[in-house]
Amino acid sequence: xxxxxxxxxxxxxxxxxxxxxxxxxxxxxxxxxxxxxxxxxxxxxxxxxxxxxxxxxxxxxxxxxxxxxxxxxxxxxxxxxxxxxxxxxxxxxxxxxxxxxxxxxxxxxxxxxxxxxxxxxxxxxxxxxxxxxxxxxxxxxxxxxxxxxxxxxxxxxxxxxxxxxxxxxxxxxxxxxxxxxxxxxxxxxxxxxxxxxxxxxxxxxxxxxxxxxxxxxxxxxxxxxxxxxxxxxxxxxxxxxxxxxxxxxxxxxxxxxxxxxxxxxxxxxxxxxxxxxxxxxxxxxxxxxxxxxxxxxxxxxxxxxxxxxxxxxxxxxxxxxxxxxxxxxxxxxxxxxxxxxxxxxxxxxxxxxxxxxxxxxxxxxxxxxxxxxxxxxxxxxxxxxxxxxxxxxxxxxxxxxxxxxxxxxxxxxxxxxxxxxxxxxxxxxxxxxxxxxxxxxxxxxxxxxxxxxxxxxxxxxxxxxxxxxxxxxxxxxxxxxxxxxxxxxxxxxxxxxxxxxxxxxxxxxxxxxxxxxxxxxxxxxxxxxxxxxxxxxxxxxxxxxxxxxxxxxxxxxxxxxxxxxxxxxxxxxxxxxx
Length: 578
Hints:
Helix content is 4%, strand content 61%. By secondary structure, it is mainly β. The protein has a single domain, classed as Maltoporin, Chain A, CATH 2.40.170. The strands form five sheets. The chain has a 22-stranded antiparallel barrel. The chain is globular, with a radius of gyration of 23 Å.
């Protein structure tokens, strides 16, 4: 590690004298640190979505050192999101401001029904354990055509068209991906489709979004190492309709939404009669947001969750909630935001939540901040009712709760340099996990007691002008969990990265762009590993040629226990935009 640090320092110093500095801008995954933010947020910008190497939108989340994207296979086949050591069921994911978590299982929450042409940015609120996928607004005109091919018989095609209809702006996007997979029984075929409509007149606006993702894939050991030839077929449809009104002293947004998800799971694709499960979930609701000119707001929502499953049976649950608070306000050198609310959830009655964010400018270039979040989550239908030869749910599970604390600072002493750091603590109780006492036992869902997760984030960033090296950043997160569970084996909670370092280089030489990312991870109970991703790009008028590679040194590793990480995978793409 010392030799690596000396090398990096020497490398950066060699460029320093050659480069002019410019005003600091967002770099790789983070907003400008002196934006009036009272909590620690990683931002994946539209520039990052265009320039970074990735095989699917969800994969971009892994370029934050505070997250751990546990992929069972790349290209959006399936991935679980951990934020500062939380499990995939804990993450709160929104699309267009609407929660899209799957009530059947968190394994399906990150199935984003969009293409790269539809997404503006992604915000990761680390203390709130929340990820917001923000939509790109449709334009009057514009066409994007993109085609890629690569290893393991990979073939990708994308078409996105912006067009007007009367006074509305519209975007239609279609994407197809197919491959035989990098190992046996990880073949896949994926379709993504979206239609986004936006109409604005005077102070009113109407918005409609339809997104669909269809994913058919081999699922080698995805859920159990006992079964190497699993197979899954997923189809998700998402509808969103929103009406917005600006009354001058107040603004009103009314949103209706529906998420329909179907899942066919085959335990052994060579013998489908052994065990095949069918699941359908429906989540639909209404959300009303009323904000006033004095920064006060009130949100009301009602949501219904349903499942019809050959394994889980039929279940319905209703959630109604209210949230009151104030958006960020500044008083001299102080920043404050606060909200609190309650949800009535059938079976668990009333559940409280709260957020407090504060900031203080010691200097114009130095801000202290503190945030607190009171969070809860209900068990998924799988955790409550699932049963097979290797796993057993628990209908008596209680609500998991946590108190999250984050204390940090943002520092930008020079125009080309910024530094952010946080110490954090998550005090969690009634933790939900899949556990067992002996290896021969089946996995069972249980409330395993209290967990304390604490650690530190640090992220220095540099940006240069008129230099081959345009950007450089190093994100580091240290995390540890106090193990209080009485069970000998944990399936998810205690499988986390103790250390994670993301190093990013952005180069530009005579119109040739290169982005090089390294990911060092040290899981707490598995071997450490380092992977490298690369994207090379050249734009020729309206055409762009790109070569992308993930795990370019073909490092063997486990991102999940007993499941091999992604092998080296290159693809070459050509796109035309006009």
